[in-house]
Write a structure and sequence with these properties.
about 300 residues; alpha+beta; twelve-stranded mixed β-sheet; about 30% helix; about 30% strand; globular
Length: about 300
């Protein structure tokens, strides 16, 4: 018997998270990160699916500030519980939640090494929008790369230069729209962006490296960190202002991140690049990053009402 219902208490929320972490181990997070993410969303629901009383599936529906006209669905079904209707039940539950909010489009993701889940989505009318290629760098296998900067440019941590937040925001305003597939995403106003993108539970000022030309912020690169993966640091945005691109600043920021991670005891770095983002893909390949499972993002219709 399949039961799908919104998580009603902290124990059910943790059970849903445990399913998610089991299915997406390289994206595992703690409940603190979930709560931080929830606060950043305009609307949020967490569905827990059980079979005969045992947790078997997790489904998150969110409406975010970047694309408020659609629902992002993040689903997970334990491998041993698949082919029993859990995915369909989660799809129907999130679709009903979206319809109640007057929305009619879902954004979903599947691992690019999971053809079964991809076929499930495409059979229901979902179409591919972006493909983010996964990458991993094993830090024990490399020597720290040199940090080569143009004259007059330095790299410091945000922790060393408090008060530069407006400059960081100006970089983000130019960086996000230039990522293939995110051209139409809306960047939050400054206060929301600062709280949600830079001051979440996985964000640290000392793990955000900033390129400065004098007192001007011209680029930054930040990590997303979680106690659920204490030896892995995940790359977040790396961006350089348009007027300063082509001078090796992004490469210097990434090299600085690698050196920072090795110094702080991390064993691997993980990231993903949209397949059309050739400059950053070439840079990561040059630094020694190797292919790892990535994600395919799709958009599609709601499940028909029963």
């Amino acid at each position: 018997m399949i039961e799908v219902s919104p998580a009603a208490n902290p124990a059910e929320e943790q059970a849903s998270l445990d399913v998610y972490n089991a299915v997406w181990p390289t994206d595992a997070v703690t409940m603190a990160e979930v709560e931080s993410f929830r606060r950043s969303q305009l609307d949020y629901v967490d569905f827990l699916t059980r079979i005969d009383g045992d947790p078997a599936g997790s489904g998150i529906g969110t409406v975010g500030p970047y694309r408020p006209d659609r629902v992002t669905a993040i689903t997970a079904v334990l491998p041993e519980k698949r082919r029993r209707g859990i995915g369909t039940a989660l799809y129907e539950a999130i679709s009903g939640w979206a319809a109640d909010r007057g929305l009619d489009t879902l954004v979903a993701r599947v691992a690019d090494d999971d053809p079964e889940s991809l076929a499930f989505a495409e059979k229901r009318g979902f179409v591919r929008v972006t493909n983010e290629k996964g990458l991993v760098l094993r830090l024990a296998e490399i020597e720290p790369p040199p940090v080569e900067l143009p004259d007059g440019v330095e790299i410091v941590s945000w922790a060393e230069r408090p008060g530069i937040e407006r400059g960081l925001y100006e970089v983000a305003l130019e960086g996000y729209p230039d990522i293939p597939g995110q051209e139409d995403d809306e960047v939050e106003p400054f206060e929301g962006w600062l709280a949600h993108e830079m001051q979440g539970s996985g964000d640290r000022a000392d793990a955000t490296l900033v390129a400065l030309a004098g007192d001007a912020v011209i680029g930054y690169a930040k990590f997303s960190l979680t106690e659920a993966q204490p030896k892995t640091a995940h790359h977040d945005l790396t961006a350089v202002k348009r007027a300063w691109r082509g001078r090796g600043i992004a490469g210097a920021l990434k090299a600085s991140q690698i050196r920072w991670a090795k110094t702080h005891g991390y064993e691997e770095l993980r990231t993903s690049n949209e397949e059309r983002n050739e400059p950053i893909r070439r840079l990561n390949a040059r630094l020694g990053y190797r292919p790892a499972p990535g994600r395919i993002f799709l958009e599609g219709p709601l499940s028909p009402a029963p």
